[in-house]
What does this fold into?
Amino acid sequence: MAERVPTDPEGRSRELPRSGSESFASQDSNEFGRGISFLDAIYGFAATLLIANVDAPPAAAWESMDALAASSVPAQALGFALSFTVIAVFWRVNVRLTRRLRGLDAVTTFINMVGAGLVILIAYTTQGISDPSTADLALPTAFYAANIAAVALCQTAMFQVARARGLERTPSSSRDNLLDAAGALVTPVVFLVSIPIALTWGASAGKWTWAAAIVLGPLVGVLVARAGRRVKV
It folds into this structure.
């Protein structure tokens, strides 16, 4: 039997799984804590793997700053910093989304694991955009963009599936959820758009497209917040 919870802001009751269900782990259960700790460890491990993409420069590169700048270190360090920041942001998003849930079931746990696997893949695709021998090629840039978009879409899908299955701690209205989803889609849309740009006009054009997320993300966030306030008023 499922518990009826009449807290839907649109006046609908939702079927919620019981805490004791074998496929459901509530936030106050050991299973939930172990699952989240495992995901946290994966994100941390993925960020640590990035250092493998930074090769030690030859001894001659340490003779002067000009020699060091001409080596592969700056490009590889930039790739490390970019992907470390991306993974950290994804981890924060995952924390924020799971806090909004009363627990995880088998389906949402599976989607979380798929997302975690894609996060680990970032360490591999980072090699393509940071290695001087491949950084100027369009295909590695496209693969990296697809990787980032896939992680972002996976996280959004996890929350939307959880919401549809009645796992929200405080159920949101359809309008509020639509506004949140619009903000979450900025990153994957920007990176997906960069793929044909990179394949058509080159890696540099594709990478510069990513900068749009820095502008559009906060802008859409402000617009979403304003729209939400207008509805409440």
In short: Residues 73-99 form the longest helix (27 residues). The two ends are 39 Å apart (CA to CA). Residues 7 and 181 are 21 Å apart (CA to CA). Confidence is low (pLDDT under 50) at residues 1-6.
